[in-house]
Every structure is written in C-alpha cells, then in structure tokens.
Amino acid sequence: MSPESTWEKNVSPIVVQSKTDTVMANNIPYTLRGDSLKSKSRTCNCTDGNTLKVNFQAIDPEELKEVKDRRKAELQKFKRRKESSKETLLIVNGSVPLSYPAQGVVVAPHEPVYIPGLKVADDTVRDDYKVQLLSAEFGVLDIGATVPNVDVNGLETTSLTMSSTSLAHLNRQLEFVVYVSTVFDIDAREYVHFVYMQHEAIIPIIIRVRKPPILYDTGKGEIHDKVTAVTKTFLRYGSVRLLLRSIQKYYPRMRVVVADDSKPIEDLQSEHVDHYVMPFASGWFGGRNLAVSQVTTPYLLWLDDDFVFTEDTKLEIMAGVLDNSNLDVVSGIAGEKNLVTTRMELIPGTDDDDGYCISHKSGNYGQVPGFPDCYLTTKVFNFFMGRSDEIRSVGFYPAYSRYADREFYLEALGKLRMAACKGIHIGHNQTRNREYKKYRYGRDQEENYKKYIMRVNYFRNNADCWHG
Question: What is the mean pLDDT of residues 317-328?
Fold first, then answer.
C-alpha cells in the first residue's frame, strides 16, 4: 500500500513552521476511556471468594511473612537469571521523522497494551496532519483517551487513522494508542505499521502468555535442602554402596536418588536413599531421566556410581556459584584428572540445507565474572551440580543406552550456561567387572552402537560430522 496515494491530496505545501505547537503538547487536555480498557484488562485478585489462597491455607500465619520474604528473594534471583530473555524497550526518536518503539512492547493474549513513544517530528506547517496505524493478524487498534481537535477513525479495527490541524494535538493523541490482542497464541509476533506521508515505521509487538516462575523454598538454606544427589548404577553394587557411604559421611542428611537397571537386584533403600528399580539393561540415559525426574530441590548433583566423596568434595562452593550467578551447571574435578573444559560449537554448511559440523575441542570461553576459579565451557565432566528444572528441560534422550557423554551437551548447547571450577574434587574409584564390561564395551555390540549414535546425530541433531 502506498500512503502517498491515499493521503497526498490532503497534504498542504511545505512552509516554515514555528515549534510552539510541539512545545505545548504536554499541556493539552485529554479524557480517559477507562471503561473501555478496563473491560479488556485483567489484574490478579486473591480476595475473590472462588480463589484458592495457597499462601494462607498452606502456611501458618506465624510463618507466612518469613516464607513470603524468602519467596520474594528467590523471585528476584529468578528474574535476574532470565533478564536476557526479556524484551528491552527501544524507541526510535524522530529520526524518520517518526518516533516509535523498535522493540520491547509485550502483551498477554486477549489483553490491551499502550504503544509507547509514538510521535511525529515535522518542522513544517500544514493545514492537516494525518497518521495511520495498521495491525496484521493478531489484534486491533484502539485509543485509551480522546484529545480535542483530533479526528479518530477505525477504533477497534486493524486500521486506525488520526488527523488534526495541530501537530501537538495529534502527538498528544498518539500517546494513547492501544494495541488489543484478539488471537490467542502463547508466543507470537505482530507487526504494526505506523505511516505518516511517505514515511513508514514497523513496530514489533510480542504476544506472550505470562508464565509462572519456578521457585523453591529452601528454608534456612542448608545444603541438603538445596541439593539432591542423583546417580545411575548398573551391575556395580560395590561401587555404588561405597558412594552412598561416602555421601552419608560428609552430607548425612542429603537425599540421594539411585536409578538401577541391574539384575539380580540388591536393595539400596535407606532413610535418605531412594532406590528406583528399572527393567534390566534399560540404559544409561533412561536411568538419568528417571533419577532427575524425582528431584524436588532447586539443584541436583550428578554423580557416576563409582565416585567417592572426600573432604575436598565441597558442595557448598558449587551451590554458592549457582546462587550468585546466572549459570545453570557447575562442575568440578574427578579423580586424578585435570579440570575438563570444552569448546563445542556448530559450524554451518555452505548451504542452508546442509548439516552442521560439530566442533568439539579442548578449551574454554574465559573466566566467569566474579569467580576467578571458574571457566565458561559448553561441556563438563560427569561430576556437576545444576539447576534441576533447566536440566530437565533439556532431558536425556533415552535411546542412548550405553554411553553418550557428548550427546547430552550437544542437546544442551545454547540452552544451559556451564562452567568448570577448580577447588572442588571428588574421588574416582573406577571399577569395571567382567559382566559390566560385557554390556558397556562388548565387542559384539560396540560397532553397532557407535553406528546407531552417529545415525541419531545425523538426523536428530542435523549433524554431518564431529570436528576436533
């Protein structure tokens, strides 16, 4: 559509203009259309008789304030972690000569939102000033107040026009332009066109359902209230029992979740150990999914079943890094190995339809700000602490039955922020009995399993090769 063809006949010749009208814009009166917008807006109301007041019914009044304060503190941490995903309001100020928001306008489905920053900057005097706003497929346009000496047409439609003999009055009316979402979608993008004479700006509007935060009440913040240890075991009861004894020695109140697909089964259940039995040889990632699904604390500690806690296994350090950063995963050092950091990246092909090369090289992306002993990485060793919900959101593809160290981190690429930290150690009591080795490294299965993993990488991950 050409705005010139529609409006050019109504535009007067350009002459020199005094800026008095613009200067006086803030003094121009307006009348709110409160009833119209109020019927389309919603706010939280916990005094309604039909609501279930979870805070009052589930918590004693004497404890409510303390719990409320802890929840507020956790909410602030959650918001800080998610800050980068928010839409920042950016307004282009009179450069075309239209002022408008270039990003940052967000509305919930079926609700209204003011479009901030709309303005026309014109240094010429005209007999008439006219603008048009056009929405597309997810909503209509309206106004939240009327301004005298401004004609408005197209209320609650996809085409809203405004005209006035005074630019100041027109700009005042633009302050009250409202976008109303009419189509439900959990996460969509609308584009509103803002047109003045031959000038046109496009305003993106995000339509997004409000999502509840995921918060954990950790009471006084003791480590056993914040962290659950999880492991998967298979045909190595001597190793896993040694691990459990070492955890009970250093962290006697910490809950441990064990996923077990051995046969015959030995009972590992105890006061702080939950033993989940699976069908025989169900697989490593299937067991990891089961174990992780049972965590109810904000953090989980992943352990191989042949690790052993020592006096240098300082979980408080790991939890402290997660508490005070936006990291999702923090690892330490196992056994006699050095700190493991890896730069994993996807390298695109020459054509959009080509598969990726997966670059997988030793290295890191520098120190974590505020934590000089921690290094940003995209792959860590199997001794790590992470945010339970973030790790669950990635999951463990259960088809990986025997080993797939790189594959989890490939699927976590771009989803989890990871770091490896010095100063946190765990013992590694490697044990591989004959029966275990037959299933894990048996030659009759090895070649077929490698081929299977590569097929999954090729199709599921759109990868042509590993590089590094």
Answer: 96
